[in-house]
């Protein structure tokens, strides 16, 4: 890549990010104060960073290594707003960087953005409800991992929906709704449309427990492939002083029309189980979901939340999935420590090919408050894919992140980060390693409004 082309491309990206941050940082607090009465929170930050990165790739001839210097900007913006029956949520983060290889003198640029925004109207005095939103996320095909997660594809989703809430009795609520979503990526090949129509019946059984009956029909159009899924479930949910509980099951039936005109049918038993335990010092949550779906229909059935921004697996086919997640967070592991751990697993069975994929994951976060102005943070993440009988790991990636943070002013911090990633594969691809030392200077703002 010519230097002039490289410089022009990255400068365009830097200019865009700088313009966004220059607009948000001075006017963000003023905007928040104007809506303080209904604002729950509004916060943002902007960072400049420099990093030194080394990549190692195992080859038949030995180990190839490259060292790069990086310079970049990153920022984030998040907020919640509630006014009567209206509510809004936004949570976005963006990063842009330029790099230069010290061995060959060439460079490149990279950028990423993830986040979501949601608006909803649900007034108890009005039976009509509607919602709209936007999501930008990273996705990967069902073909393994990348050493640098910022190199996964980016997908934008625009969604909207409306519903009508009926109360035929003092203890019964019926909600009829329809939702639609369009996903698009860097090329037209990944564009999908999906829709769902649902009927949900909820009956109060006691002060804190409810019985549920749900039915839905969903459609997706992924290029020349069309999928229709009918789902029916019954369930139960309850709450107490220590958390919530829900359980249910049902059946789903799918029909797939392939580009050749061939129509295939499949079905499966579905189920869900969730349990949360909440105390003043710790929280624990467990969930199990068995679903029959595809990636496009998931966009309208299971919208993302701000806490769910690991990369998503893109599956352009009907898949029967069994997934569990277990997470524990302890805010007072010791006098100056906080800690969280999570474990997940998923089995995906293709209804077209019959192939089965097993995926495992685990994570650990530890924070230590050294003093009022200094903090240490450690994170470990592990992801793995196994062969069909789950007896041997075919590919796995380990990520270690260490971070020291020093507060310079009320909303200004300086951080030193050391990041490591190890990719190990038994497939037809080499093992990889990445090491990065990063210096980050961050300034932000944070406002808590009266709406919280």
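^ structure tokens above, recovered residues below v
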């Amino acid at each position: 890549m010519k230097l002039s082309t490289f410089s022009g491309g990255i400068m365009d990206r830097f200019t865009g990010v700088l313009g966004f941050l220059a607009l948000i940082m001075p006017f963000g607090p003023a905007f928040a104060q104007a809506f303080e009465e209904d604002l729950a929170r509004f916060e943002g930050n902007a960072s400049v960073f420099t990093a030194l990165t080394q990549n190692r790739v195992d080859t038949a001839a030995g180990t190839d290594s490259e060292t790069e210097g990086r310079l970049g900007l990153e920022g984030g913006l998040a907020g919640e707003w509630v006014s009567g029956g209206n509510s809004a949520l936004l949570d976005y983060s963006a990063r842009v960087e330029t790099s230069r290889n010290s061995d060959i003198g060439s460079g490149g640029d990279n950028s990423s953005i993830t986040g979501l925004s949601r608006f909803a109207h649900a007034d108890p005095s009005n039976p009509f409800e509607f919602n709209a939103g936007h999501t930008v996320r990273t996705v990967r095909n069902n073909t393994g991992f990348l050493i640098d997660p910022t190199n996964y594809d980016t997908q934008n989703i625009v969604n909207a929906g409306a519903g009508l809430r009926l109360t035929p009795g003092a203890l019964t609520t019926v909600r009829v709704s329809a939702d639609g979503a369009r996903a698009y990526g860097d090329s037209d090949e990944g564009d999908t449309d999906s829709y769902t129509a649902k009927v949900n019946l909820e009956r109060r059984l006691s002060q804190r427990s409810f019985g549920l009956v749900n039915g839905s029909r969903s459609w997706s159009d992924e290029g020349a492939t069309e999928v229709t899924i009918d789902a029916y479930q019954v369930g139960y949910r309850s709450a107490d002083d220590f958390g919530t509980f829900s359980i249910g099951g049902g059946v789903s039936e799918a029909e797939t029309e392939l580009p050749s005109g061939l129509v295939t049918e499949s079905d499966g038993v579905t189920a869900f189980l969730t349990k949360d335990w909440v105390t003043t010092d710790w929280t624990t949550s467990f969930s199990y979901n068995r679903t029959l779906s595809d990636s496009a229909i998931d966009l309208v059935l299971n919208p993302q939340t701000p806490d769910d921004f690991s990369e998503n697996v893109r599956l352009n086919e009907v898949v029967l999935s069994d997934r569990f997640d277990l997470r524990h967070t302890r805010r007072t592991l010791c006098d100056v420590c906080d800690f969280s751990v999570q474990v997940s697993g998923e089995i995906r069975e293709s209804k077209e090919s019959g192939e089965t994929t097993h995926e495992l994951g685990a994570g650990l976060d530890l924070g230590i408050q050294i003093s009022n102005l200094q903090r240490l943070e450690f994170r470990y993440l592990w992801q793995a894919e196994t062969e069909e009988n789950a007896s041997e790991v075919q590919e796995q990636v380990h990520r270690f992140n260490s971070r020291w943070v020093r507060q310079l002013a009320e909303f200004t911090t300086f951080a030193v980060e050391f990041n490591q990633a190890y990719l190990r594969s038994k497939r037809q691809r080499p093992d990889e390693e990445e090491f990065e030392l990063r210096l980050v200077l961050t300034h932000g703002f944070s406002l808590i409004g009266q709406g919280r």
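The CA atoms of residues 379 and 440 lie 17 Å apart.
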